[in-house]
Amino acid sequence: MKEILLTMTLLILAYTVQAQQNKFKVLERNFIFPHQSLHVHGSSIVELPSGDLLSTWFEGSGERGSDDVKIMGAKYKQATKRWGSPYVLADTEGLPDCNPVLFMHRNKLFLVWIAVQANRWENSVLRFRRSAEFEGDEVKWEWQDNILLKPGDDFVAAVKARFKELPPRNHAWAEYAPRYDAQIIQATEDPTKRAFGWMTRIKPLILSSGRILLPVYSDGFNFSMIAFSDSNGESWNYSEPIVGRGNIQPALIDNSKGEIVAYMRDSGDDPALLQQSVSKDQGKSWSVNKEFNVKSTASVDVLKLDRSNWILLTNDNEEGRARLSLYQSTDEGASWQSIGIIVEDKTKVGRFSYPAMIADSKGSIHITYSHHKAPNSKSIEHVVIDRKSIQ
After folding, report:
1. Of 65, 118, 135, 192, which is the most buried if we count CB atoms within 10 A?
2. C-alpha to C-alpha distances, 320 to 13, 296, 346, 353, nearest whole angstrom
3. Rounded to an integer, what distance in angstroms lies between the CA atom of residue 71 and that of residue 298?
4. Dist. CA 287–CA 276, nearest whole Å
5. Contact indicator for 57, 63 with CB cutoff of 8 Å
6. Burial level of 1, CB count in 10 A (0-12/13-18/19+)?
7. What tens digit of pLDDT does each residue of 191-221 get?
8. SS (H, E, C) the chain
């Protein structure tokens, strides 16, 4: 009996949420489905008009290299406070489907994701589905199409201009080795490389005008861009690139000046720090990327609770994904302070990452993220936080 109690104590110490130190109140914690050996990652969550929730993630034997990967989903009913059985939301036959994003726009449910051609992120194609029948046990899709972007010479010119604004860095070990900046600029001059490989990750920001700002990024270029629509998703255009040396997976928020702020993970040089860019023209052009002194080793998400109260989720370890923390800004993103830990494995075996975060109509904040206890023990956790507890 003592051995059992000791084992349980060690597990509790290893996987802790440190509730006594947090400056927010957790109302619920639950797993959408039991931990399993199949790989699950990249979740998104949306509130439906009924108040119920729909979550999505990709699932299969791997990621871009596994053709059995598909987009899964499950519904959370507020009446029962329980998640229903997972089912397939999208599956492109013979290709891996990854990085799903859900959002509501004008009484329609949208699902955007990527189909990975030739098993390479750089060949990914953006796809989307739309539905007006989504309150049942399963979504009934009415339309599906690809989002095809064709960045032109203006894209190349913007990349060249922004790289000149970045601080100089020597990314080569010898004079004969190619420079990082020059390689990326040269790659942008290829029309095919500009047109493919844009990937989703974080929910869009929908402006009061109805414009949809869908954040996308490229592993090939190692920076980001915005796909935007002024036609309710019927057609799409591209913004100027959000240029930096490893700023990917933008999360968007708008401030009181009418600017759009993008916060991004750092996939460039160490130390991995939170990246930021600003648009002053409704998401069409973007300032050169800059770093914040907040650690960010994987994907982030951001949420505006009111004008000057913003929160942000990030992996703030020195390295790895063993801790997922919540940060707060009370000055519209000028500074950020940690307000507690969502989850942490002090043994550093667990990996908790790729969060999604929304506020519902009843005053709760909903978070989903990849909860990987071990390489063969994976699920998506759903955490509910009391909005009023974050002041």
Report:
1. 135
2. 19, 10, 12, 10
3. 21
4. 9
5. no
6. exposed
7. 999 999 999 999 999 999 999 999 999 999 9
8. CHHHHHHHHHHHHHEECCHHHCCCCEEEEEECCCCECCEEEEEEEEECCCCCEEEEEEEECCCCCCCCCEEEEEEEECCCCEECCCEEEECCCCCCEEEEEEEEECCEEEEEEEEEHHHCHHHEEEEEEEECECCCCCCECCEEEEECCCCCHHHHHHHHHHHHHCCCCCCCCCCCCCCHHHHHHHHHCCHHHHHCCEECCCCCEECCCCCEEEEEEECCCCEEEEEEECCCCCCCEECCCECCCCEEEEEEEECCCCCEEEEEEECCCCCCEEEEEEECCCCCCCCCCEEEEEECCCCCEEEEEECCEEEEEECCCCCCCCEEEEEEECCCCCCCEEEEEEEEECCCCCEEEEEEEEECCCCEEEEEEEEEEECCEEEEEEEEEEHHHCC
pLDDT (tens digit per residue) in 321-366: 999 999 999 999 999 999 999 999 999 999 999 999 999 999 999 9
Residue with tokens 């490229």: 218
Residues 6 or more apart whose CB falls under 8 angstroms from that of 175 comprise none
pTM for this model (two decimals):
0.93
For residue 168, give every residue at least 6 positions away whose Cβ sits within 8 Å of its Cβ, in sequence order, or none.
Answer: none
CA gap 277, 215 in Å, rounded: 12
Give the span between the Cα atoms of 268 and 222, in whole angstroms: 8
Q: Is the dihedral of CA 186, 191, 193, 199 positive or negative?
A: positive
Question: Alpha-carbon distance 302 to 274, whole Å?
Answer: 12
Q: How far apart are CA 327 and CA 306, in angstroms?
A: 15
